[in-house]
Each structure stands twice: as C-alpha cells, then as structure tokens.
Amino acid sequence: MARVEHAPLTAPSVSIDASERRALGKTARAEAPRSSQSLLPLAEKRDALALLEAQARSRVPELVPIRYGRMVVSPLAYFRGAATVMAHDLAPTPTAGLRVQLSGDAHFQNFGGFASPERDLVFDLNDFDETLPGPFEWDLKRLAASFEIAGRDRDFTRTERKHAVLAAVRSYRKAMGRFAAMGELDVWYARLDAKAIDQDLEEAHDRKLRRSLRRAEAKGQRHDRMLALARLTRKIDGELRFISDPPLIVPLAELDGREDGAVLESRLHALFRRYRRTLPAERRTLIERFRHVDLARKVVGIGSVGTRSWAMLLVGRDDGDPLFLQIKEALPSVLEPLLGKSQFATHGQRVVVGQRLMQAASDSFLGWVHSDETVDGGAHDFYVRQLWDWKTSVDVDTILPRGLTAYATACGWTLARAHARSGDRIAIAAYLGASDRFDRAVAEFAAGYADLNEQDHRDLVEAAADGRVDAVEGV
Length: 475
Fold this sequence. Notes:
Layout: H1 18-31, H2 48-56, H3 64-71, H4 75-81, H5 83-90, E1 99-102, E2 111-115, E3 121-125, E4 132-135, H6 136-153, H7 158-180, H8 184-189, E5 192-193, H9 194-203, H10 207-222, H11 225-232, E6 233-236, E7 239-242, E8 249-251, H12 261-276, H13 281-287, E9 291-298, E10 309-315, E11 322-329, H14 336-339, H15 347-358, E12 367-371, E13 380-386, H16 401-420, H17 425-432, H18 437-465
Antiparallel strand pairs: 1-4, 2-3, 3-5, 6-7, 8-9, 9-10, 10-11, 11-13, 12-13
C-alpha cells in the first residue's frame, strides 16, 4: 500500500518571506513537473471492490445494501460513494509536496449553499467526513474528475466536459494567485455568498443563470427547520415525534434489540451534555434553552450510508420553535491509511476542526462527542450539526453545459480559498504559475480517471448481479 508520510499541518513560517515561499513553489516543479499531474499510475493488485467491502465492515450491516444500491445507479453515484477508492488511486500520483487541510471528498456535489450564522446564504464546501492534512492536488483532482463524470452522466460532448473541468482548475489556479497577494486576515474573511455570485452574473449580463441562482436561493431558504418540522414529524399523544419511514427514518423506539427506554434516555442525555461542552459558551447558553423531544436513525447521502446517523428533535419556547440536529458518526478518514493518523483524539473533533478551518462560515451548533456506550452499543465518535439550514445544491439532472461550467468556476474558487486558509498559498500559487499547463494536465487526469471509474462501476454492478454484494436499489 502506498503511503505519504506527514507531520501535523502547520502554517507557513513567518520567518520565511514571500520571495522565499515563491521560490519554494517554483522549485517544487522539479520534483513534480506540472505536466506530470496528468499521470495516473495505479497501485499493483488494485481491487476497488475489496476497498469498499473493507470500509463496509465498520458500518451498520443492515444499511450497507442501501449504500451499494445507491452506488450501482450510475458511474456518478458510484464515484460519490467511492472516496476510499480514489484516495488509494491518488497515493502514487505526483505531488508538489505542498500540503493543506484537505476535504478528502471534494466532489462537486459536496459544495452548495447553506445559512451562515449571520443568516446569509453562503456557498462553500459542506462535507468533511474525510478531512485530513495532505497534498493540495488530491482535492483538486477529485473535484476535476467529478465534473468530467457529471458531464458524461448528462451526455455532454467531450468539449463541453473539458470546458467545465478546465474552468474548475483554472478558477482554482487564478484564485490561489490572488490569495497569494492578499493579507492573512483578508484571506480568512474571504467568502462567496449569493449576493457576490449575483453581482458577477449581473456584470456578465448572464440573465438566465442569474434567474436560476435566485430560484436556487429561494428554494434553499425554504429548506429549513420549519420544512423539516412539516415533513419529518407529527404529533402523537400531544408530543412531536419523528414519522417512521423505515429503513430511511426509524425512531429510536422502533429499533430492534433496543435496551430499556429509561436507560437509553439517560445515556442519550449524557451524550448530549458532553457534546454541548464542545460549543462556545454563548452557543451553549442558546442550546440549553431547548429540550430534547425525539430521536431517530436517519439514512443520509451515498458515501455515508451505513454510518450511524441520528436526527434529534428539540423544541424551544413551544412546538413551533424546533431545532433539528444531525448526530453523525465520524469514522477514520479514508486518507489515514495513506497519509497517517489524525492528530486529534477523536474523529468527531478531526471533522469539526477541519470544517472550521476550511469553511468561511460554519454551523452555529457544530460540535463533537465520543461515547463508550451508544444507543446501538459500542464506542463511537460523532460530530453534530443542524440537519436542515437553508441547504441548496446543484440539480445534476437538469444542469446544462453552460451552467456546469459556471458552477465549476465557483467550486474552483471556493476550494482555493479553503486551501489558502491552511496551506502556503504563495508557494502553491508559484507552483501553479500563470500558464494553463497545470490545468490541461489535471483535465487529462480527470478524463482518464472517469474511464477508470466507469470500469469500477461496471464491476460493482456485476458483483451485485451475481450476488457477491447485496445491493438494494430504489431506497
């Protein structure tokens, strides 16, 4: 197994001036020429299915078939669930040795809009289950490959797909160049919100995309706690309760093999109290005004299916003042076998710290907790965030080539800003340079990886067909 050794991520030394940092980036081209970023050297005895099966062993057994059922739908769905496979495929690829805090799963559907604590709709990365320090190229190549694969999913031409991929990489490169010239606080405060995107589209006289953005913004603002209240709950004997919809939503009271209700309730409250201690003092004051009402296991996503994920309902002044929290299991990052173990004591803390480092604005209730005894037994790490809070994302089924390219530009900028907060942006910008040599190399990599991903998807479909894996579709 390939492995890249690393020390804990640290900020660029203040004793090194900008010219030395630029020289460091340019020197890295000798170690990893920008044209070499097109290479896809695969590890010997590569077995994508074995990697997925190994990952499944840490998950809730009865939910794993749902995960496979979602992955067999298309190569794009497979790609979303196969972060561990791509991590192993990236390990032998050339890198410049310039490290950042990685998302670890930076495909384009893990970007989107959500509410900032100031109640602005911001655009950012929104999934950090795999976050870990590592080579900046790994996130960027996963992002680029996702646009190539999405373009194929929509039957776009090769030229249309390449436009989107190049837009993402070019946007990343140019943004990193701009961040390299900015001060530390300016980089830290930089963010992309709906107002900024709308202004850019107005200046570009792109009325169609501007209307589309405003529709997405309006939809996202409706996707909030009140919609969750209407869709996910109902009153039973005068108390709000989650609506049972197995296997996707299963209230705690309906789970097979559950322990005595009073014991579980006590354990849950202890878990919740420990989570609250990871919040800033003012947020603890706020959340203590809510009381716990109900808990349900909730299946989410594709790559996350099978992890222990809970939805918690709390209410404030009355039943019309709900707060929905997601308590999601944090497993070891898929990057750890390749980059080394996290420096944090728990994986929940790893996720939360990585998210706060990479996002321009994070959830007000973002925190973590470890439990030696969870509601389904065993010791597990979790992180906590709001379940729905103005969530919006791109509609893959309807997006057109022009829209995919515009979206790729936004994602590239956002990823560069996330990396610039933790890595040496001056050295990375110097390595990338002003030409499109790096862009074209990564686009070539993305096309090659999309071919590999299609073969892996076919292999999983065949494994499901002949019974080697159990896949339940349509759930």
